[in-house]
Write a structure and sequence with these properties.
Blueprint (H helix, E strand, L loop, with lengths): L1 E9 L2 E12 L4 E5 L4 H4 L1 H11 L8 E7 L11 H11 L11 E3 L2 E2 L5 E2 L4 H10 L4 E5 L3 H4 L6 E5 L2 H8 L8 H4 L27 H13 L3 E4 L6 H5 L11 H14 L14 E2 L7 H5 E2 L4 E2 L1 H4 L4 E4 L7 H13 L1 E6 L2 E6 L3 E6 L18 H9 L3 H5 L3 E4 L5 H4 L8 H18 L12 H5 L3 H14 L3 H18 L6 H9 L5
Parallel strand pairs: 3-4, 5-8, 8-9, 10-17, 10-18, 11-14, 14-17
Antiparallel strand pairs: 1-2, 2-4, 6-7, 12-13, 15-16
Helix pairs in contact: 2-3, 8-17, 8-20, 17-20, 19-21, 20-21
């Protein structure tokens, strides 16, 4: 019996799969067991064609393929190469020691070529944890595979090249050497600021632009409310240009999720830029949070380590919005099914925009609202209090006069604001908890270091405005971010006052 290692993707996580092959002296047939899905069951036809096209013999006896663990459903075509190598080793075309310590991931074409598969980076990370010392992947996956730490990854164009490598012939190139010299633009990526809209494009709205800077510096959630056409969406789409680059571990996390979801090209590079997702308000619960069979990540997980922008927030399904409450608190989506429970990472920064009423004119000085009291109440009830409490900043965006819209630029460009954000994030890194939105409640008072006058001001605001304890703690985090932007060691009453100015009371 021959054993070969591969991996399958469950949700967004790679799971090591041991491919066992036994060849017995019975009538020729091939059995695949171990809960294979349709794509895995059909792999035998692809493997037969690939082996024949490579000039290798397929065993003319009974071949039994077992995929362990047997209680895990296997889907996708990434197991093709491992099954083919196990069959060839079991049939005597390879010595058993040739596959020791090696793992194989990739889809086979009928002519023996190796096709790129989704989830290869998550698979390699799982195989490294399982003890593999070398992994062979399709050449089309080399760009992403070379980022797997602690594992020697080699890239192969076809099955014949893999066999030559295993038999001691021509060595396969490493994934890193294959991509040596490629820039981010060559791999279909872009620089951190290329193509991003600039904050200086927005005329007026000084409070909203300041709220964007504070949100970027502290990772805070932001809700922009105001009439249509006041620039809420334009403002929200300027946030990515203000955010700092992702750290290496954060890049791998975000890219593994996008790779597992199959939303990126096989040759795409791992970008430094945080992901930005903006689903339509007609998105279903599965589309927003994840689900399906097999489990796929939703928009909340695709925005992990980045931004989830929900435009027209009240128009989203009420159940979808309420489901976000737990996700915002815990940073993970839990999907429970009869056959198991899956956890999908979803630690994102929520940015949302909403009109004040159905017609959008409520509170506008120049337009009359057509909504009666009942319609206004119904519209405002679409956003529950507990959900809004979990959003740190709630800022009104008013109409801008034509003299301002037609005037000169009245604010710094994104690059200048981004430098201030980076300095504030560096302060938070030294403190040990970054960004400030993630400050733990148990140590909040010590980390915020608020002056007595600042706490007194916050206490008066909580009593007069009837703010919840959750909102009060979030205001402290926002005030700490404002102090970091100013370079102050302690949080003053000025910081708390500015944080309160960015918390519109419903």
């Amino acid at each position: 019996m021959t054993r070969v290692w591969s991996a399958a993707v469950v949700g967004v996580t790679g799971v090591p799969v041991e491919v066992e092959v036994r060849i017995s002296s019975q009538l020729p047939c091939v059995d695949v067991v171990g809960l294979p899905e349709a794509a895995v069951r059909e792999s035998i036809s692809r493997i037969r064609g690939a082996i024949a096209a490579s000039g290798l013999p397929f065993p003319d006896r009974r071949v039994t393929v077992n995929l362990a663990p047997a209680d895990l459903r296997k889907n996708g075509a990434g197991l093709d190469l491992a099954i083919a190598i196990a069959i060839l080793a079991g049939g005597g075309s390879l010595p058993p020691e040739a596959v020791d310590g090696r793992a194989f991931v990739g889809e086979l074409a009928l002519d023996g070529r190796l096709r790129a598969t989704r989830g290869v980076l998550a698979s390699l990370l799982a195989l490294r944890a399982a003890g593999a010392r070398e992994a062979i992947v399709p050449a089309g996956c080399a760009e992403r595979a070379r980022h797997a730490p602690g594992l020697e990854v080699r890239a192969a164009p076809d099955l014949a090249a893999v066999m030559a490598h295993l038999l001691g012939g021509e060595r396969l190139p490493s994934a890193a050497s294959l991509c040596e010299g490629r820039t981010l633009e060559d791999a279909g990526g872009a620089g951190d600021e290329d193509g991003l809209p600039c904050l200086s494009d927005i005329r007026g709205q000084p409070l909203a632009k300041r709220a964007l800077e504070v949100a970027a510096a502290g990772g805070h959630g932001l809700l922009l409310t105001g009439p249509p056409g006041t620039g809420k969406t334009l403002l929200a789409r300027r946030l990515p240009a203000l955010l700092p680059s992702l750290r290496e571990d954060e890049r791998l996390e975000a890219f593994c999720i996008a790779d597992a979801a199959g939303i990126i090209a096989p040759e795409a590079a791992i970008p430094d830029r945080p992901p930005f997702r903006a689903p339509h308000h007609t998105a279903s619960a599965a589309g927003l949070l994840g689900g399906g069979n097999p489990i796929r990540p939703g928009e909340a997980s695709l925005a992990h380590r980045g931004v989830l922008f929900l435009d027209e927030l009240p128009e989203f399904d009420r159940r979808c919005l309420e489901s976000l409450r737990e996700v915002l608190e815990q940073g993970v989506v839990r999907i429970a099914r009869a056959n198991g429970t899956w956890e999908l990472p979803a630690r994102f920064q929520l940015i949302a925009a909403a009109n004040p009423c159905a017609c959008g004119a409520y509170g506008s000085p120049g337009r009359d609202c057509r909504c009666d009291d009942a319609a206004l109440a119904r519209y405002q009830r679409r956003l529950s209090g507990p959900l809004v409490d979990r959003i740190d900043l709630v800022v009104g965006v008013g109409e801008v006069p034509w003299s301002v819209l037609n005037g000169p630029v009245d604010g710094p460009p994104s690059a200048v604001v981004r430098e201030r954000v980076a300095r504030a994030r560096a302060i938070q890194q030294v403190r040990g908890f970054a960004p400030n939105a993630a400050l733990p409640d148990a140590r909040l008072d010590a980390l915020v270091a608020a002056e007595p006058a600042a706490l007194a001001l916050l206490g008066r605001a909580v009593e007069r405005l009837h703010l919840s304890a959750r909102v009060a703690r979030r205001l402290l985090r926002v005030a700490r971010t404002i102090a970091d932007l100013a370079g102050r060691a302690g949080t003053t009453s000025t910081d708390v006052a500015e944080a309160l100015s960015m918390r519109q009371v419903r």
